[in-house]
Amino acid sequence: MAAANLGAGGGSHKAPGATGEFFAPGSLVASATPEAQCGLPWIETPTSYDGILLLGFGGPEGQDDVIPFLRNVTRGRGIPDERLEEVAHHYRHFDGISPINEHNRELKTALAAELTARGLDLPLFWGNRNWAPYVNEAMTEAANAGKHRLLALATSAYSSFSSCRQYREDLADGLEDTGLGQTLQIDKVRQFFDHPGFVAPFVEGVRDGLASVEAKFPGINLETEVEVLFSTHSIPNSDADRSGPPERGFGAGGAYVAQHRAVAEVIMGKLGRTTTPWQLVFQSRSGPPQVPWLEPDVNDAIRLLPATGRKAVLIVPLGFVSDHMEVMWDLDTEAMETSAEVGIFAVRTPTPGIHPAYVSGLVDLILERVTGLPGANRPHETTLGPWYDVCRTGCCENARLGFKPALSGLKP
């Protein structure tokens, strides 16, 4: 199968889209372990894995990588390089280096240490969607090491096409590209938007952020003069509406919006700040302006705050597990500039990164599958969870492209 030589290291390449599917006889879930082939929402049978497949988005690591990386991100859309260069300046501002790969290296190291501390002999293999090391390379590395039963862990907490199903499609792409469809069995950790380990760093960040606002403005009224903006990546309305299982009936915004709102409510509730004003905002939209995307944009929301009497804004990157380029540029650069322009004091809270609670929580999620923890005992902070080990039928369709082969879920 032809592959473009786009990544560092000569032979690195992004797998082309899969055209086939890989099923064990009688199974409902493509290329799953025997325990997961039943397709139940939660797999409550202990499963013996021999490796963890860490899935990332990927990012450029030098100026020469930027345009090839953006070609990967936008593959199939026919976007010319001249338009890609309009986005490239975000990366070029930081010497063409996205922080995401280095963050994943740090996360891989932290996870390995936590797994060892828990007595789990599970080697980690790391693969990205859009830049080296690619998912198909990680699969080949695992197979060459004699590993055949992998548990995939995506660095994305919420349900949508781009944050869940596309990773599942990456797995199918990688199996077809490598020819390992009959060799590797791959399951995937559930979406962890409301797992305590993911929520705890945000609770801590909002608490400390509000404290810094009070230190800056002694006596400030947190119920009338401060606004908390929970920010996440905007996606097309049509994709948001299709996020999550159709039978859950989430309505406009689908599971993607519902999950973010639910987690934000939990954070404010844990801090006893239910009367402090907050809202869910969006960032980093792309695509043609005539296509509706989730709103309001974080900058538009900030511009409206002075008229409401707000003196300070707390910006919480709720949709991000680490300081992606979207956090560094859209929040740390543009949103901070907008805040300064309108005379609002702004604080940006941290992402989970390698926070001990987050790393420990990810290993807890791995252990759920290793031990077959019953669904009723799975920890979750909102009434929406715990989310599913096996994605349900019709979950997170891409409105433009429809359903493509994907692992770790029921068809389509």
Automatic annotation (TrEMBL):
UniProt keyword annotation of Iron present: yes
Task performed by this protein: Involved in coproporphyrin-dependent heme b biosynthesis. Catalyzes the insertion of ferrous iron into coproporphyrin III to form Fe-coproporphyrin III.
Location(s), subcellular: Cytoplasm
Gene Ontology cellular-component terms listed: cytoplasm
GO molecular function per UniProt: ferrochelatase activity; metal ion binding
Protein name: Coproporphyrin III ferrochelatase
Associated pathway: Porphyrin-containing compound metabolism; protoheme biosynthesis
Recorded superkingdom: Bacteria
Record's keyword annotation contains Metal-binding: yes
